[in-house]
Amino acid sequence: MLLDIQNNKRRLIFCYLRGTHHFDLFYNIFNENKDIDFYFTSNFITADDYRKSSIYTLDNVYFIDDIKKFKFKFSLFGAFITTDAQATAPHEYSLKLINFFNKLHIPVIELQHGLFQLGLHYYDKPDKENFRDDSLPTSSFAEHILTYYPVVNNVKTTTIGYPPYNKDMLSYKGEYNLILSNMHWLTYTNEEKYNFYKTVLQFTEKNKDTLFIWKMHHGEMVNPHCQHMLNNLFTIFPDAKQNIIFYHENDILKNTNIFDLINKANIIISTVSTVLLDCERCKKETYTFSSPAVDCLTKKLKNPQCFKNYEELHKILQSKKHTFSTGLLQKFDNKKFRDCINALYKRSNLNQPQLLSRILSFE
To answer: How far apart are the first and last CA of the chain?
Structure first.
């Protein structure tokens, strides 16, 4: 599907999406800028994933599954937007693309993808159990960052709001409780991960008449340590599994939009994650797991209800219903996005020999 874009007079922007969970992050950006053609790639997204997504219906979006065949067209793009612009091992694929666009003198823009993101707001604290090469603070390798809300850092930023949030939603009260987690974070110690899983299973076992849907982060689903820990806890709380449906194991649920899943839930139990913005957007009664590893993050939330164990969760659920607020939710402002693109967008001015030498260097 290599389109003839050589003579295209429309502006062209290339994008990297970390995974299918970023489709919703980009949807409004793509949809509200139909005069721009967006091409995107990912090492975690298949053509079939793309066809099942909401952005497949947009006429100005194209998926590139073979990046090496497409490299000769890269010089036609005026900007590169990526959700991964920090020097961390999981972001290696995106960093190679950044390096390539830098060689072509095409501006690189990072779109914030996390509520509290490594390299923008916090860093993982290494400990003896979870030490890795990217445990220290790291900055963005992009010339500019598009952020959900104002942040203080050493690079230029434009606050565009939360891209999935461009209009208010009608809130529904559902018939299930929702669990949202991302315990694959190395920020958490093994003890904290164990404590969260234990708390959740205790809670589900004590509420046998309630249906629970559990949506794990993709990184958590494929993390063998997390899965082993959870399976061991199910042997201690065998009845807990009777009223839990795992999102990724259900053929119907796994194709359900995360916003619909949140909006139709009764109460939500979550870890610190971007989904907290969606919980606030849907005006949901939300309870957030806290621990020493993330206390510095939960303290940034305006009006959370936090728990560290089952006893604390049970206690706050017995108290008066609260209004959850992160204090960080801002509507997407497409004008600010366009202003940023207008200021940075540019064509490559390389001559043919220079261009060819840079393209051939791409791996």
So the answer is: 21
